[in-house]
Design brief:
Shape: elongated
Largest sheet: 5 strands, antiparallel
Oligomer: single chain
Distance between the termini: 35 Å
Number of strands: 11
Amino acid sequence: MLYHPDKHRDPELKRQAEQLFNLVHQAYEVLSDPQLRAIYDIYGKRGLDVEGWEVVERKRTPVEIREEFERLQREREERRLQQRTNPKGMISVGVDATDLFDRYEEDYKDLPGGGFPHVEINKMHISQSIEAPLTTTDTAVLSGSLSTHNGNGGGNINLLLPSAVFYATVGPLIFYLAIQRLIIRPYVRAQQEQDLEKHRESSASDIARKKQEAESAVLLMQESVRRIIETEESRMGLIILNAWFGKFVTDNSRRHERAKVIDVSVPLQCLVKDSKLILTEATKTGLPGFYDPCVGEEKSLKVLYQFRGVMHQVLSPDGEALRIPKQCR
């Protein structure tokens, strides 16, 4: 009702209401579908963005949906890893089956122990290689091999770089696991940090859009908030005096850092019902009139409120449930 376009006469407010009402409609389509709602309840919006749900059998239980989501996530990660590292491998085996054919010779039966043919593996070669993109144009190639012939074996690991080639024999291929721990895993962690930074940069436009949506929502809430405050004042109920959401700097050693908060007094007052404010155990960034002012950083909600004529203050970490006022026991 708050965002229904017909509730607003001002052309600009009506336009903003239509945009937010469409978001409400999208939410309704998800929450009214039993399978989509189960996916959202477990994994949120990111669960709905995973490819593959369209071919999943409907009427799944939450446990089955969780297992299916994890399977789809693993498949996506495997595809990303293969695209990134382009793994290649080869195994060849040499078999000596001379004894199997010699038994058909006329004099074979006269040889001792000729009742059962002797077949053995006399050589084996295993090779594996992966690629590690360094830049958009340069790629490092790490390869290793293990060979054995008539009881003698050896192995090597090579690291091929665009600027130079380094060759070294370091023993059997089992030492590749050590190289993986020293080189590959640190590289993957560094890549993940780069991906997080890219995510922050790429989300800038999305944050700007959500900020605009939040500001529009606050404008549309003004009339409803005015009526709620009048009702709460008449019963000496819950009045939100000030509220902020984001990153607060409370440690003296971090005073040089700048607080990153937004004013959410109006959105919280709009959520007050019967002199109570109840927020569930979830991030506040999705609440009407809220957005994320500091992507990837810890956030809190600070509220200064009045109840029964007495002022109170509360600081709640993002993601935790909040009830104002607290229930008396």
